[in-house]
Amino acid sequence: MTPAYMPFTYLSEPTARLLNALVGPVVLYQPLEKKIPESLSALASQGLVEIRTPMTRDDDRLQAALAEFTDWARMNPGRSTPGTGFFSARQGEIPFFDETAINRIRSDIKRYRQSDHLADHQSDETEVGFSARLFLAVAQENDMAADRLDHDLNRFKALEKDFLEVLKDADEAGFNRQTHGGTIWREDPGTKLTGQRIRAWAALAAADAKLPELLVTTSSAVIDTLLETSGEALRLEKLADMRLCVPSAGTTPVLGRVLADLAVQETLPSADLSAFASLAAELASEPAVTVTLFVAANRTPATVISRVAPATASPPEENGKPKSVRHTLIVLVEG
């Protein structure tokens, strides 16, 4: 099965390696063909992700809008910039965007449409694609900045730990080597503007000529939003969960065969889940992650993507493969 990472266009190398070990290389949709981050290109060259850019129209217009927004964000960091005032603020207050930033994006989209001499001939479908890609491009910049901040914080924590370990008479001096700094809270990047993220990602995915057969996310907020907004229409429900050890690099994706078999079953959720549950017993060791399986029963990936995408987005096409997927499985992976 071909898994796609949703609703993000960026992921860190550790996350890419983890997902690769669980489900194989994930499809990572990109908003701009000419502006793919070097770190993602490196992951693709290692076979950890598959980069796809389903939409390439208006790239120059999109890059101009993104550059203008980025310049504006630098001059108006406020709360919308990851890491701004981090050490002086409470942990967890690194928002994705504030309303000022969102209004700026809306203004840019409207202005660029009005300034385009072809605007009168642009279909709603084209403009939805442009809006979605601009949103995802800005979101990607934000996610990369947050990832860099996490990396720096981890380095700081490691240095602090080493310092306290070698500091002579540290405990007597008022330091506690066992509680060096505590745990730094990490915010789920999907918690801010979750619905907008999902719709923008789905608009991009819908334009893919070869749709993914499995959806994977690392954000519980994304699952919560899907259940709240589309759960009934998609018949989305939790199928199973388990604690699973992280497989060794270079092994066959541990969930691949099990998920492929479930996706083509005649009926779900009444299918036999023993193969899925047995993985927890077979691989019961540390380090481990929690894997939760959700299913949109009798809903193909094309149907699911179409349902969560904007109404005017290009409708996705069914793959029509032999023994095609009957049910859309969504895998939530949490540390």
Question: Can you give keywords for this protein?
Answer:
5-stranded mixed sheet, 335 residues, alpha/beta, globular, 7 strands, single chain, two-stranded parallel sheet
Tell me about this structure.
By secondary structure, this protein is of the alpha/beta class. The protein has a domain at 3-28 and 208-334. 44% of the residues lie in helices and 12% in strands. The protein contains ten helices and seven strands. The chain has helices spanning 13-23, 38-45, 59-75, 99-115, 124-166, 194-206, 220-234, 256-263, 274-282, 301-308, and strands at 3-5, 26-29, 49-52, 214-217, 236-245, 288-296, 328-334. The chain has a five-stranded mixed sheet. Helix 2 (38-45) links the parallel strand 2 and strand 3 (49-52). The longest helix has 43 residues, at 124-166. It is globular, with a radius of gyration of 22 Å. It starts with a strand and ends with a strand. 36% of the residues are buried. Mean pLDDT is 78; it is low at 80-97, 115-121 and 179-185.
